[in-house]
Amino acid sequence: MANKEFPYTGFTSLAVHAGHEQDPNYAHLTPIYASSTFVYDSAEQGMRRFSKQEEGYIYSRWGNPTFTEAEKKIAAMECFGVATTNGDPLQVKALLHASGMAAITTLFISNLKAGDKILSHFSLYGGSQEMMDKILPGLGIEAVIVDLRDLNKAEEALKADPKIRMVYLETPANPTVQCVDIAELTQLAKKYNKLVACDNTFATPYLQQPFRYGVDFIIHSTTKFLNGHGTAVGGVLLGRDIEFMNNRAAKTYQLLGGNSNPFDAFLLINGMRTLEIRMERHCHNATEIANYLEVHKAVAKVNYTGLSSHPDHYLAHKQMRHPGAIMSIELKGGLQAGIQMMDRLQLCTRTVSLGTCDTLLCHPASMTHYGVPKAQREQYGITDGLIRMSIGIENVQDILMDLEQSLKGL
Ligand SMILES: *Cc1c(COP(=O)(O)O)cnc(C)c1O
């Protein structure tokens, strides 16, 4: 925390500079510290470092200077303009992980024990859902799943089950873009003295800052918009209880071994510098594309929180700066139309994942969910003609031209 506290007035000034410290060799950028271990001047110094009397790096599973810059930058972005209840600028601590799932694992294992429960919503990232279904029950930790868009149901669950220790939110959710109300749910959780965690991957700290509403923890898959270029899988856990983060969370992180690596951290630092300008462009393009597709004759429905037809339109507007860059469309022509559209794409990329500079399209019925029986797929809202889109930062007229030619005659 030796970093000078410059009073950044703009998000990008902060995103460019925050977390950076002068390199001892005067390198402009923080180098990729590709070193598993760190050395001591003397046995006494080793003693001081191990007993935490002196700050310093020891072993890269515990921390590394390249991770530190990425961690401080994300922490600064999540706290930008956010004050504590005393009016002081909020400070949080971040731990950089190998993946979003590794960060979620540290979150759960450091906070929960056998007998505890998590309250969450039914629409979550598949990996988080599977973790609650397949891994946590073996540790004696159960998930209570209710529709968290209904605050009465959320309160009933909190009242009925004192074993609930954490409320776990993800908004907008992957991939449905369903939103839940962070402010209302956090207030409710705090009334019953529960911890609140929020997966902020889809929004990023530029669009939405959950610490503003009093959540205890934020997690990100940095793989998506934070890295922004699709060059590395990564994740981060941020917490406002610094004492907990430095002790229980750090110990769990060190022993689970879910740390990042210096090369991926370096890529992440560089990606995050342009977060604001990328998100502005992503969201601007997404709005134009949603408006175009909403009236296209091959399209039955556009699912985008930026459209007033979306049930979470007002909630997204309340807690997010812009409605994000993820949407899905439903083609009138079903499976065949979906396959044809995917085959004809020339500019847009056919792949899963999201949050990169290029526009990504995925047709779950013929890709991720091929082989899942239709009736089962449709339970998750994955109909034959559903196309998922992560809108990129290309010039919007080119994306529109590619969509137009790929939808022609469908
Ligand atoms: C991708 C994703 C994750 C998992 O992150 P990985 O980096 O793939 O481990 C978690 N939450 C959300 C919302 C995601 O989109």
UniProtKB/TrEMBL annotation:
GO molecular function, one term: carbon-sulfur lyase activity
Pfam family, one: Cys_Met_Meta_PP
Transmembrane segments annotated in the record for this chain: none
Cofactor annotation: pyridoxal 5'-phosphate
This protein's UniProt keywords: Pyridoxal phosphate
PROSITE patterns listed in its UniProt record: CYS_MET_METAB_PP
One cellular component (GO) term of this entry: cytoplasm
GO biological process: methionine biosynthetic process; transsulfuration
Entry-annotated residues carrying N6-(pyridoxal phosphate)lysine: K224
Signal peptide span: none
PANTHER family membership: CYSTATHIONINE GAMMA-LYASE, TRANS-SULFURATION ENZYME FAMILY MEMBER
Family: Belongs to the trans-sulfuration enzymes family.
Name of this protein: Cystathionine gamma-synthase
Organism of provenance: Niastella yeongjuensis
